Amino acid sequence: MTVEELLAGCTPSAARPVVVLTGAGVSVSSGIPTFRGPEGYWTVGSTQYRPQQMATNQAFQQMPREVWRWYLYRKGVCNAADPNDGHRSIAALETHFGDGFALITQNVDGLHTRGGCSHERTYEVHGSIDWMRDLDTDERLPIPDGLALTGRDDPLTDEAWAQLVNPATGARCRPHVLWFDEYYDERNYRAHSAMEAATRASVMIVCGTSGAASLPYQAVEMACAAGAALVDISPDDNPFRDAAERYERGVGLEATGDEGLARVVAALGVQ
User: Fold this and answer.
1) What confidence tens digit (pLDDT) does each residue in 228-242 have?
2) Residue positions annotated with a catalytic role
């Protein structure tokens, strides 16, 4: 079965939306390295840390300034990137289907909303690189302008460190991201809302994720249980490709995000 045959006649609605699930692969052509790639490693003194070690509450408790420096460098990389054709294709789906659309993204780079998707229908289940949270109250605040670092060796100055607080209370803030030693929740990451959208999906489009996190697996399982059509877009084999090829209403596309999403958008009749 081709993706055109699978999606022929699909008419997403508010009750049965088209749901897009994205991972780091959708941002590769924008120049953002995948999280677990070699660019994710970080050196502190003579010790090299893996992303899975830096992106933890434990690391933040032990070396908060260094964790913040790593995230501010990553913020600089993300802020310098531009949305690509894949992001724009996904935004075209929202423009066309309105409330019959939902986006679940593991990416913290902000390129989906900068590419045209609304905050309302975009579930950033791993947080956002542009925000921080008060450690005392969990209040979410924008990271002050000018704090992104442009070089891996740029220092986190005392002046910058002093700005990473809630200006109303002076309380220290943390990056607004889901760390490896934490759990999905609704208040900070809208995880329940994302899963609820997956349970109603008429079409589930998975793009650019290897399935290393738990929520994507559950979202796809729930969508398939609801009878959704499943399309996996990736240049490489992955668990979702296998699931799509085993599933009666599934198709795997061996393509980049840009290419595969353009094909899906056209198959759904979106200009």
Assistant:
1) 999 999 988 888 888
2) 126
Q: Report pLDDT digits (tens) over 7-43.
A: 998 899 999 999 999 998 899 999 987 656 666 667 7
State the pLDDT at residue 43. Answer: 72
Rounded distance, CA 4 to CA 214, Å? 29
Q: For the domain covering 3-31+83-131+188-267, report its CATH number.
A: 3.40.50.1220
Distances (CA, A) of 157 to 60, 65, 109, 188, 243: 17, 10, 23, 28, 48
- pLDDT tier at 254, thresholds 50, 70, 90: very high
DSSP β-bridge partners for residue 22: 105, 207
Q: How far is CA 58 from the centre of its chain?
A: 23
Q: What is the DSSP letter of 55?
A: S
Are 101 and 13 contacting, i.e. CB atoms less than 8 angstroms apart? no
Under DSSP, is residue 34 helix (H, G, I), strand (E, B) or coil?
coil
Q: Cβ atoms within 10 A of the Cβ of 5, count?
A: 10
Cβ–Cβ < 8 Å for 165, 171: yes
The gap between the terminal CA atoms of the chain, to the nearest Å, is 23
- What is the structure's pLDDT at 22? 96
Q: How far is CA 34 from CA 73, 78, 101, 112, in A?
A: 14, 11, 26, 16
Q: What is the pLDDT of residue 38?
A: 60
- What is the distance between the alpha carbons of residues 79 and 111, in angstroms, rounded to a whole number? 9
